[in-house]
Each structure stands twice: as structure tokens, then as C-alpha cells.
């Protein structure tokens, strides 16, 4: 979940795979570059298509990708969970 938007965890995991696999890094700065958008992926789950039309899509995708980090259990990755941290 991101704000009022809700997505299945499996779809968010797919999104994270797209974002991790296509992260472009500037070798001088060693920081990810913002040129990649998962909206360019033809296999992007359709529940993310409306997000692609929003101005804040990059931030939404970044937050969703962080929610699917491997070190979080699926319960703690869910916004409905409280007290996990």
C-alpha cells in the first residue's frame, strides 16, 4: 500500500525485480540515476498502469520497491502491520 493505492504483494515483488534489474548507476557518483521507469516494461503488472500516468510515479515506485526488500517479512512489508520496527 502507498497512500490510498493498494497493490498485491506479488505484483510489488515483480516491480522490485524490474527496478533492481534495471538500476543504472553513475560510476562517478555511485548513486542510482533516475532515468529508468518501470512503466517502460511491457510485462509490468497492469495494476501499476494508472500509477504511470501520475506525476509522483517515481516516488510511488521507489517506496513500493523498498517495501518489498528481502530483509522484511511479508507481514512487516504490509502497511497494515504495526510495531515491526
From TrEMBL:
Its main location: secreted. One of its GO terms (molecular function) is guanylate cyclase activator activity. It is found in: Secreted. It holds the Pfam family Guanylin. InterPro entries: Guanylin (IPR000879), Guanylin_sf (IPR036382). GO terms for cellular component: extracellular region. The keyword Hydrolase does not apply. SUPFAM superfamilies: Proguanylin. Belongs to the guanylin family. Gene3D superfamilies: Guanylin (3.90.1450.10). The keyword Disulfide bond applies. It comes from the Eukaryota. This is Guanylate cyclase activator 2B. Keywords: Disulfide bond, Secreted, Signal. The gene is Guca2a. Endogenous activator of intestinal guanylate cyclase. It stimulates this enzyme through the same receptor binding region as the heat-stable enterotoxins. May be a potent physiological regulator of intestinal fluid and electrolyte transport. May be an autocrine/paracrine regulator of intestinal salt and water transport. Disulfide bonds join 39-52, 73-81, 76-84.
Amino acid at each position: 500500500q502507498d497512500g490510498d493505492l493498494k497493490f498485491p504483494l506479488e505484483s510489488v515483488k515483480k516491480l522490485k525485480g524490474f527496478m533492481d534489474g534495471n538500476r543504472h548507476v553513475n560510476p562517478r557518483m555511485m548513486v542510482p540515476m533516475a532515468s529508468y521507469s518501470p512503466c517502460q516494461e511491457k510485462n509490468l503488472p497492469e495494476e501499476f498502469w494508472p500509477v504511470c500516468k501520475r506525476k509522483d510515479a517515481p516516488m510511488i515506485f521507489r517506496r513500493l520497491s523498498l517495501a518489498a526488500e528481502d530483509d522484511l517479512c511479508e507481514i512487516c512489508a504490509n502497511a497494515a502491520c504495526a510495531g515491526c520496527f
